[in-house]
Each structure stands twice: as C-alpha cells, then as structure tokens.
C-alpha cells in the first residue's frame, strides 16, 4: 500500500523510534551490546590477559637461576637460524667446566680442551665454546653465532679434573639453516 507522505509511518508498521519523542535522537538509538564501550573494554582486557598468560607459559625465564646442585646446560631457544646468536647457560656446583658445540666428546691437551669427534651434521667443525673455567656463583652464561647448516646439534658441558674430561650435561639446539 502506497502512502501520500512516506515520512509519516503508517499505523500498521512498528515505529523505529521509542515511545518518548522528546528525547534527542542520539539518546533514543541503542547500539548492539557488543558496540557498547564497557563490553569492548571487557573483551580487550580478556584478550590481553589471555595473551599475557599464553606468552608467559611459552617462554621460560632467561637466563636460568644459578643452581649449585647437579650440573646442567641450557640454550635460550631450541631453533636458531645460521648466523644468529645461540645463548646458553651452564649451572652446577663449583668445579672446572668446559662447553663444546657439535662435538661428541672432548680431551685436554696442554691445559686446553679440544673437541674429539663431531656430530654428523657438524662435518668436523665442532668447537669449544668455553675453555675450562670455574663456575662463579654456580653459573656462567655465554653466546656465539650459529655456524652450522640445518640440523640437530648439542651443547655439551664437560667437567675437567686435571686431564680427565667427563660429560655431565647436554642440551639440544636445532639449526634452521
């Protein structure tokens, strides 16, 4: 049915405006609930909280706290691209330790540690990250640039007692090439 004045609502159609025509239009219009500022603020707070919890659960504390008990070596990340830094930390009781990367074992020659054998992907290029030194405060921390192509490698912590070298811990570090 056509009306003469389209601006005047017909009796059979519901009014788009509330009952009180004295209110300004901005007070009569109510946005959907998800557009209201309180709801948007609450959603934003929940998203930030969930994100913070997820990140905290994913990333451990770096560097690890000094632990004077069982020797341990850890890397800050599990995957590193070639040329990027590999951060590591060794903890343990006071003794002399050396750290290697890509070596299967080590030996002492003239007071310095030399790698013996290389992991398959290291292709004979294993190296000593830290020469024998006493842990100060039950921990030392270091870093080096990832030298190897894509593959699985290990940081190895060796206790040095005179000319005896004993592996006491290792940590896996993957190169993403």
Automatic annotation (TrEMBL):
<feature type="compositionally biased region" description="Acidic residues">
    <location>
        <begin position="10"/>
        <end position="22"/>
    </location>
</feature>
<protein>
    <submittedName>
        <fullName>Uncharacterized protein</fullName>
    </submittedName>
</protein>
<feature type="region of interest" description="Disordered">
    <location>
        <begin position="1"/>
        <end position="28"/>
    </location>
</feature>
<keyword id="KW-1133">Transmembrane helix</keyword>
<keyword id="KW-0472">Membrane</keyword>
<feature type="transmembrane region" description="Helical">
    <location>
        <begin position="39"/>
        <end position="57"/>
    </location>
</feature>
<keyword id="KW-0812">Transmembrane</keyword>
